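#lab-general

N.A. 3:47 PM
ok so I finally got the sequence cleaned up, no stray characters, all 309 residues accounted for. can someone with queue access submit it? mine expired

B.Y. 3:52 PM
send it over

N.A. 3:53 PM
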Amino acid sequence: MPVERKKVWFASGDSRCAAWLYPGSNGACVVMAGGMAVTKEPGTDRFAERFAEAGFAVLAFDYRRLGESGGEPRQVVRPRDERADWNAAIAYASTVPGVDPARIAIWGFSSSGGHVFPVAADHPTLAAAIAQTPNADGQAAARNAMRYQHPPSMLRLLGRGVLDALGGLLGRAPRLVPLSGPPGTLAVLTTPDAQDGCAALNPGDRYPDWQQAVAARSALRVGFYRPGRAAARVRCPLLVVVCDQDQSALVGPAVRAASRAPRSEVVHLPGGHYATFLDQHEQAVDAEIAFLRRHLVDQRVRVVDAPAR
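B.Y. 4:20 PM
back already:
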């Protein structure tokens, strides 16, 4: 039977974010968000349900300007604002009845997995953090993505991004581009494993309201974003899950970022960028739940049961 959840809202910046709140039974909470322009349902449902079944409360939210959250202009991705939304989500989670503020973890995949590094660094009191197939270095990922795109299409994407950015300064509506597409098409990602995105996140068009497009200006911002550089400042336990054939969010930068974090673990799985939603889903869920239990539940038990000195 699916875990019951309820819609909640919390303020962030000049607007508010929509979120699903799953009840928990062990006092710990996992705050979650999807990848680039991926809303909370396709981006977190499968993992959030499993975490909730394991006893964790879950707060899975939409960034501003996406999904059910407020904010204008729509479909515009701004890393700085998304990190502010994380801050607001963590603050809200700490007020949820039954949640111990000292036992909050964060989870993100792809671009949100990249956010996990600076967000965890900025919140030293977090109990744990999980970065799943994170885009730890936007510059490296952008250079790699060029290998799978035709030069004319790259120029079209760049041109549309520049025009969209200029239009944004004039208050014009965003110029949207698809999140993924085959090489030669105008899309943010044309890597081979990006073609698995729909099957992984939206099988059978399960989430018809998910707008699988983003403002072209967003691709310019993400291409210069290098969140893995914050890993050395992460003080909480950090789990980095990578897929060894990932062609969209590269393994190398993610593993190097993890090596700089003092309390990191790395789990290697076979497959491409979306393997954790496909044939490696059970392995990813099992590793993540074990990690969460170890640091949010078992650690708490050891502290409570420790004899007084």
